[in-house]
Amino acid sequence: MQKSEHVVLYRKYRPKSFAEVVGQEHVVTVLKNALRLGRVSHAYLFSGTRGTGKTTLARLLAKAYNCEKRGDDSEPCNSCQICLEFSAGKALDLIEIDAASNRGIDDIRELKDAVRFTPMHAKRKVYIIDEVHMLTKEAFNALLKTLEEPPEHAMFILATTELEKVPDTILSRTQSFEFRRLSQEKIRERVKTILKSEKYALDEDSITIITFLADGSLRDAESMLGQLMDAYPDGAGKDAPEKLFGLPKLKSVHELLDAALKREPVCVIDLLEKIVAQGIDPKMLSRLLVHEARTLLTCAINQTEIDALKKKLSEDHVAFFSSHANLPRRDIEALLVKLLEAHNSGLRGPFQELPVELALLGVMLDDKSK
After folding, report:
1. Is 162 a residue whose pLDDT tops 50?
2. pTM above the 0.70 mark?
3. Where are the domains of the chain?
4. Which of 11, 55, 130, 329 maximizes the CB count within 10 A of its CB?
């Protein structure tokens, strides 16, 4: 018996309706109202960081507009022939173009020639141009003419991660929406939903690490979760994400912060040498140090924050913040500032860990200079 084809998580759980879209309510509301009132524009521009749902919402808008049985709530029916074709990526009237590899004027001229033809089955032929900022100046000028005088049977949805590179002439002829980075809480909820659906167990600290590494990108979180499940099909242990993604152990990060706050320079140097010897990326160590120091500062400012952390972190993780929350705020603030400066330095060159080391030791040096 032939096995079914494996589908990566971010594709398997890609939203099929507007209700399933996470974290972009401000965009979804406007698009649903436009569909309900019959005011769908001929051209849209979706901008935002990677993995925030730009292409997903572009496909949803294309499907919902052309749906043969769209409901009063503006949701696609997902059962008509049009919906099935659009969902499967087999619709002849949905054309997706990667501007990174089709960026020249000849590519846009071909698009202009194709636009003239009416749709095969749908009400509108939809063109999704991803990474549109990659188009050449000449290609943008050619596209501008089409956006100025679009045929009634065509819709354009442009997507970009670098809005500042899109010419003002293009911006003025599109409805523009900025997609927001997702909060860690929203990503955490989504990860838990997938884990429940996949019947896969993962501890709270591991979920926290994935949401932290995702950095506002839901697609990255889903991709990393898929990697973890493929690497540990029978279940992931507590240290699985650290091993798979090359992270320092949270315990080591906490020990570093503890040594710095207790003014123990020899201990800081020794701990850092052990972490670097494991091949840990200093940039990732820096990110974790900043994240944990910032969380510690919020606990020092507001003790009730510890109760909130108990709902989403392990006992050991929360214990670190509880045991250090009574430290002087100015000490934690000073350390966080130093760590941020080190992180923002770029950590380049042959001694990438050196800015982190100087940041941890810097608080002690400041004490002696006073």
Report:
1. yes
2. yes
3. 9-178, 184-245, 250-369
4. 130
CATH hierarchy code of domain 250-369: 1.20.272.10
| Contacts within 8 Å (CB) and 24+ apart, 355-360 | 355/286, 356/272, 356/282, 356/285, 356/286, 356/289, 357/268, 357/269, 357/272, 359/335, 360/256, 360/259, 360/260, 360/268, 360/272, 360/335
Instruction: Provide the 10 A C-beta neighbour count for residue 62.
Output: 26
Task: Say how many Å lie between the first and final Cα of the chain, rounded.
Answer: 75
pLDDT at 344: 86
pLDDT (tens digit, 9 = 90+) per residue, 200-253? 999 888 898 899 899 899 999 999 999 999 999 888 888 888 888 888 888 999
Q: Starting at the edge strand that comes first in sequence, how are the strands of the sheet with 154-160 ordered? A: 94-98, 125-130, 154-160, 43-47, 175-178
Tokens of 260: 């710095």
Residue whose pair of structure tokens reads 């992270």 in the numeric block: 247
Residues 39-57 pLDDT 10s: 999 999 999 999 999 999 9
Q: Which residues contact 22 (CB under 8 A, 6 or more apart)?
A: 15, 53, 182, 186, 189, 190, 218
- Amino acid 139 reads A
Long-range CB contacts (< 8 A, 24+ apart) of 166-174? 166/45, 166/47, 166/132, 166/133, 167/140, 169/140, 169/144, 170/45, 170/132, 170/140, 170/143, 170/144, 171/45, 173/43, 173/144, 173/147, 173/148, 174/41, 174/43, 174/44, 174/45, 174/147
Instruction: Please indicate whether the domains covering 9-178 and 250-369 agree at the CATH topology level.
Output: no
Phi, psi at residue 179, to the nearest 5°? -85, 135
